[in-house]
Amino acid sequence: MSKIQRDGFIQQHRDQKLDLDKLRDDSRAQETLSEADLTVDDLARADRGRYGNRDGKLDAREAFYLADDFDNDGTRRSLIDYNATGQQTPAGRAAGALGVLLDSKGSGPTGDDIARAALDRIDRFGDNYGVPGAWISPNPRIPGNRVPDSTVMNGTKDKWKCNLFGLDAVYQAGFETPHYESGWYPIATEVPNYSSGRNRIFDRVAHVDLRGVSDNDEKLRLIEGLMRQAKPGDLIMANHEGEDIADGGHTRVVTANNMDEDGTLDCAQARQDAAKVLHEDPKSVGRVYGSSSEEQLFLLRPIRKRADAR
Q1: Are 97 and 23 in contact (CB under 8 A)?
Q2: Residue 217: which residues within 8 A CB-CB, separation 6 or more?
Q3: Residues 88, 90, 93, 98: is their CA dihedral positive or negative?
Q4: Which end of the chain has fewer surrounding CB within 10 Å, N or C?
Q5: Are residues 255 and 121 in the same domain?
Q6: Is 186 in contact with 163 (CB distance < 8 Å)?
Q7: Average pLDDT of the chain?
Q8: What range does the domain containing 25 cover?
Q9: In this structure, are 207 and 141 located in the same domain?
């Protein structure tokens, strides 16, 4: 179980407000609210309610209390965002949606910026993300990266680099990235660990566990459900079958959702030869063929902007 603390939420979204009149003309924002069982009218009631200042705008304090209305932990100082079984709660979904909207209406990066960063890195450094290539990163926090986007990182040839590509795109767009204490990015299978708790870097939008699912049609149905929720800038993290650790997963950056048109996502990713964009359906995302399906898939949405991002 994990909780979001009221004071931390307010600090994270300080000086950010949602203009309710503008939200009524923003279909994408309304879609985000709907996914959390919220409407603009709910936000208006929070603005007019006990904790609101009735200015036609929803601030972080009002947003937290609105999300906390879904909660039952008995205090207004916190809300439970993931329960003991690892499932996101209604309060957690509400807080996540309101946090995303507060961030998007303030200054700084968006999911579209992550998608553009991924395409830019393919154009400029695509070969460097192939297995034979040597990694070049924009992130100065990486050990030894003296001149970002110029220094060739020693020891990275002949290694898979999907996690490096995905997290570099997140960093370049202006979002915070997960790191081990050493400064290195986590491997793909451990990136979902950074999607819970008050200091999480990602919202866990969806999670599909295919372990124990033997019917391929059911696997495809579950994977399609996850893919339909994807937005540009989201990460799809896969955990391969088996005991492999370092190369036991895969990272995709969603650059376009075509599910309603042809049942695919455009996914930027590092492959064996180079980083590239692939048009992928549920079968390829889940590797649903033979006996080599993925074990788990996570749809993660970066939410924490870097302090130095504009």
Answers
A1: no
A2: none
A3: negative
A4: C
A5: yes
A6: yes
A7: 91
A8: 2-105
A9: yes
